[in-house]
């Protein structure tokens, strides 16, 4: 009989950055996810929605502030604690919920923290960490060429900027209080005549309209399409220096890929645990499916893949933390490590989800079992933070065999 216990792996400290206090926080985060999120996931998935008040619930438990400074309501700064939260959140069973909470804290809030002025942090970051505001994040569009072809354009008009365009994939775009949005400005003298700049756009600004997107997976996600027509944004709401958007996107992508890798491992682990539990209960030829050697071997292979992916994601996290602390990790090494981790973990999660459907047999496609949800949700993971082929190109350009 298979004795694989995914919980045993998840609680081991595989990274020197994870100190005793991080493991204590992991236990609290896991209890929160198991008590406040997972029991509600089935009904939220059926409704394709969840209460917006959940942002305050998560904030009240301290999970939005793990990596931010106490000045703004955080408990950090502690990137390792932030990584612990991302790992545990990934176990909840609803990728759409994870995507929304991630976009708020790991994308919008992180960019505000790294590049915002004190006034911007007081106005947006502090209430976001408290769960009083919901942040959205938008960079690319359906037809965009990666993060180069940003679909929104901005023109300077006195002390303001005027934004126009449509961005179809803004995370939390359907209900955010504000969106951290990239826009392209035509600039004479630049190599391609363009530069990218980030703005903080309030959702009630005149000329801004939003609608929720219909996604193949991530059923609870509030990813939305934003249409901007003559949207006037004060220069005080410019995030970072004008023209620094490309560098900010590159910095953001490194953290996004780390987060996506950590979440993919946690999701695959949860899917595998559910499949093993089902195999122990399911009978075939008078005995549990889990007792057949073929499935013991397949589960063993999947468990090994999960552990390989965990090590690679932690390797990427090490690089990110080292680079953030000004240690000797350059942008090339960071891009390579985070790209490898994101590429491998997402493909691993899809393989695990496929096998988990198989062990369920026909039941794998019934909505009452989580296997179908993992199977759908893991398909979208290969798009964010760079598509598989984009990451392959990046690794090919930077990898030098030792």
Write the layout of secondary structure elements.
Layout: H1 6-10, H2 20-47, H3 54-60, H4 79-89, H5 95-115, H6 118-129, E1 135-138, E2 152-157, E3 160-170, E4 178-186, E5 194-202, E6 208-212, E7 224-234, E8 238-239, H7 245-281, E9 283-284, E10 287-288, H8 293-324, H9 331-360, H10 371-377, H11 388-398
Parallel strand pairs: 1-4
Antiparallel strand pairs: 2-3, 3-7, 4-5, 5-8, 6-7, 9-10
Helix pairs in contact: 2-4, 4-7, 5-6, 5-7, 7-8, 7-9, 8-9, 9-10, 9-11
Structural commentary:
The radius of gyration is 21 Å and the shape is globular. Helix 4 crosses helix 7 and helix 7 (245-281) packs antiparallel against helix 8 (293-324). It has eleven helices and ten strands. The protein has three domains: 6-134, Butyryl-Coa Dehydrogenase, subunit A, domain 1 (Orthogonal Bundle), CATH 1.10.540.10; 138-243, Beta Barrel (Butyryl-CoA Dehydrogenase, subunit A, domain 2), CATH 2.40.110; 246-398, Butyryl-CoA Dehydrogenase, subunit A, domain 3, CATH 1.20.140. The protein has a four-stranded mixed sheet with strand order 1-4-5-8. The protein has helices spanning 6-10, 20-47, 54-60, 79-89, 95-115, 118-129, 245-281, 293-324, 331-360, 371-377, 388-398, and strands at 135-138, 152-157, 160-170, 178-186, 194-202, 208-212, 224-234, 238-239, 283-284, 287-288. It is an alpha+beta fold and 402 residues long.
């Amino acid at each position: 009989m298979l004795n694989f216990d995914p919980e045993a792996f998840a609680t081991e400290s595989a990274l020197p950055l994870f100190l005793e206090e991080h493991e204590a926080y992991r236990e609290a985060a896991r209890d929160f996810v198991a008590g406040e999120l997972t029991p509600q996931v089935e009904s939220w998935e059926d409704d394709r929605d969840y209460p917006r008040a959940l942002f305050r619930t998560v904030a009240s438990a301290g999970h939005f502030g793990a990596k931010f400074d106490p000045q703004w309501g955080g408990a950090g700064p502690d990137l390792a604690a932030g990584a612990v939260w991302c790992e545990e959140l990934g176990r909840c069973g609803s990728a759409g919920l994870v995507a929304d909470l991630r976009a708020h804290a790991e994308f919008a809030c992180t960019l505000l923290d790294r590049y915002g002025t004190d006034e911007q942090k007081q106005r947006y970051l502090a209430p976001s960490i408290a769960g009083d505001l919901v942040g959205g994040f938008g960079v690319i569009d359906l037809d965009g060429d990666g993060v180069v072809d940003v679909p929104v354009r901005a023109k300077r008009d006195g002390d303001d900027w005027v934004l126009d365009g449509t961005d179809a994939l803004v995370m939390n775009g359907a209900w955010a209080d504000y969106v951290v949005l990239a826009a392209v400005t035509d600039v004479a003298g630049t190599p391609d005549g363009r530069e990218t700049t980030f703005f903080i756009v309030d959702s009630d600004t005149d000329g801004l309209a939003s609608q929720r997107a219909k996604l193949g997976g991530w059923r609870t996600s509030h990813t939305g399409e934003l249409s901007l027509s003559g949207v006037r944004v004060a220069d005080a709401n410019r995030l970072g220096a004008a023209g620094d958007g490309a560098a900010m996107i590159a910095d953001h992508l490194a953290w996004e890929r780390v987060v996506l890798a950590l979440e993919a491992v946690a999701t695959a682990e949860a899917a595998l645990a559910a499949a093993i539990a089902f195999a122990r209960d399911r009978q075939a030829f008078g005995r549990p499916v889990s007792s057949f050697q073929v499935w013991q071997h397949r589960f063993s292979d999947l468990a090994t893949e999960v552990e390989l992916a965990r090590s690679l994601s932690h390797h990427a996290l090490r690089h990110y933390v080292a680079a953030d602390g000004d240690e000797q990790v350059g942008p090339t090494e960071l891009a390579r490590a985070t790209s490898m981790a994101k590429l491998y973990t997402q493909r691993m999660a899809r393989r695990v989800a496929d096998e988990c459907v198989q062990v369920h047999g026909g039941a794998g496609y019934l909505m009452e079992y989580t296997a179908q949800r993992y199977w759908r949700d893991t398909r979208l993971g290969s798009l964010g933070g760079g598509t598989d082929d984009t990451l392959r190109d990046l690794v090919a350009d930077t990898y030098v065999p030792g």
